[in-house]
Design goal:
This protein has a domain of about 260 residues: Rhodopsin 7-helix transmembrane proteins (Rhopdopsin 7-helix transmembrane proteins). The protein has 13 helices and 4 strands. Helix 4 runs parallel beside helix 6, helix 8 runs antiparallel to helix 9 and helix 10 packs across helix 11. The longest helix has about 40 residues. This is Neuromedin-K receptor.
Length: about 475
């Protein structure tokens, strides 16, 4: 992934978008393969026809002039017809529009409504911010670079373009990982205190710091090169293509393989716990309500994670294969493969708001409020209540909820005793257990064995709905 998806690794692979026959993009991509010697890389560059007679444009020793080639061989094999460019432009434009506006609305829904400010939703804010930022600052710029093989945006933006995508993807995937771990702790070990608002902010800050550290080499080694008729943006590693390839693999492991493994394990355990079995007989309504709410949230987050994994998989495969099999960079249709895999990866930024709207009633109510100006959108009183009211307020001092324990008094008359016919004896009944209000008494034993993962001192149904 090296540059995710900035000019760093595709750098000049993305130049396949508009280069000469061999294309500098292909040559640089070929050079990214492990074990490629400098001499072989220079030979590829010269063969590509992008450097007139030497490779000094990349700061490397000059090579011998390439033998002249017939003019016919210098035609651009990656030039696309206008209709195809228009279709790709429309596809990328839709991704950017939906991702930016959709994620901004998600952020507004959570921050503007107190009922939505939960631990999980704070991580969703972080996820939405990183997705919207990458769509706004990265997608169209890379698309333009891929089409024209020309860097129009200056040296500073070249550094930002190589640096920020890795940062944003790291923040996105580890926000999802934090949600998975939080769900695991809330369901498997609910008696432990949940993350406070301060702790949540510290976790989010730590995610961004680690993301900056991982992406910093991309910023440090980014360069632009002005050549006759072309300006390139790329990453020049001090130890050459082998170091670049190694970094690429490390990034894939850290922003794809490892977090998906963690989420796979946690959601598997949570799924077995939530869907593994039911308590026989009638149980409390509170249990069913919380279980249902937890299932909905876990289901929604599993869909978000699976969507991310599917969208980014072809992109990572593309770069690994083109680094190992260098000849693929000269294939006639490699530009279309790149544009398709890059579009799919970037489209991951627009699906989450759609998933939230379809699977969560409060987000759906929030989207209705945001689009209430549309003539076909109607906001009902129920939708308004979804974002304004709460069902109950749990406290940290109580074992489950703030409940007043009351003792009932039973008055017993004994008609057979005339002396006591006007008197009464009061018996105190056993205090009622507040945690089983509404539960069938015959199932109180079985319910008590499972209540440890149903309710927590620090959660309510609002946390999961």
């Amino acid at each position: 992934m090296g540059s995710l998806p900035a000019a760093a690794n595709w750098t000049d692979r993305a130049s396949t978008a508009g280069a000469d026959p061999g294309n500098l993009s292909a040559a640089l991509a070929a050079g990214a393969a492990p074990g490629t010697t400098e001499a072989e890389w220079l030979h590829l560059l010269v063969q590509a026809g992008n450097l007139s007679a030497s490779s000094s444009a990349l700061g490397l020793p000059a090579a011998s002039p390439a033998p002249s080639q017939p003019r016919a061989n210098l035609t651009n094999q990656f030039v696309q017809p206008s209709w195809r460019i228009a279709l790709w432009s429309l596809a990328y434009g839709v991704v950017v529009a939906v991702a930016v506006f959709g994620n901004l609305i998600v952020i507004w829904i959570i921050l503007a409504h107190k009922r939505m400010r939960t631990v999980t939703n704070y991580f969703l804010v972080n996820l939405a911010f990183s997705d919207a930022s990458m769509a706004a600052f990265n997608t169209l710029v890379n698309f333009i670079y891929a089409l024209h093989s020309e860097w129009y945006f200056g040296a500073n933006y070249c550094r930002f373009q190589n640096f920020f995508p890795i940062t944003a993807v790291f923040a996105s995937i580890y926000s999802m990982t934090a949600i998975a771990v939080d769900r695991y702790m809330a369901i498997i070990d609910p008696l432990k205190p949940r993350l406070s608002a301060t702790a949540t902010k510290i976790v989010i800050g730590s995610i961004w710091i680690l993301a900056f550290l991982l992406a910093f080499p991309q910023c440090l080694y980014s360069k632009i090169k002005v050549m006759p008729g072309r300006t390139l943006c790329y990453v020049q590693w001090p130890e050459g293509p082998k170091q670049h390839f190694t970094y690429h693999i490390i990034v894939i492991v850290l922003v794809y393989c490892f977090p998906l493994l963690v989420m796979g394990v946690t959601y598997t355990i949570v799924g077995i716990t939530l869907w593994g079995g039911e308590i026989p007989g009638d149980t409390c309504n509170k249990y069913h309500e919380q279980l249902k709410a937890k299932r909905k949230v876990v289901k929604m987050m599993i869909i978000v994670v699976v969507t991310f994994a599917i969208c980014w998989l072809p992109y990572h495969i593309y770069f690994i294969l083109t680094a190992i099999y260098q000849q693929l960079n000269r294939w006639k249709y490699i530009q279309q493969v790149y544009l398709a895999s890059f579009w799919l990866a970037m489209s991951s930024t627009m699906y989450n708001p759609i998933i939230y709207c379809c699977l969560n009633k409060r987000f759906r109510a929030g989207f209705k409020r945001a689009f209430r100006w549309c003539p076909f959108i109607e906001v009902s009183s129920y939708d308004e209540l979804e974002l304004k009211t709460t069902r109950f307020h749990p406290t940290r001092q109580s074992s489950l909820y703030t409940v007043t324990r009351m003792e009932s008094v039973t008055v017993v008359f004994e008609p057979s005793d005339p002396d006591n016919s006007k008197a009464s004896r009061k018996k105190r009944a056993t205090p009622r257990d507040p945690s089983f209000s509404g539960c069938s008494r015959r199932n109180s034993k079985s319910a008590s064995t499972t209540s440890s993962f149903i309710s927590s001192p620090y959660t309510s149904v609002d946390e999961y709905s």
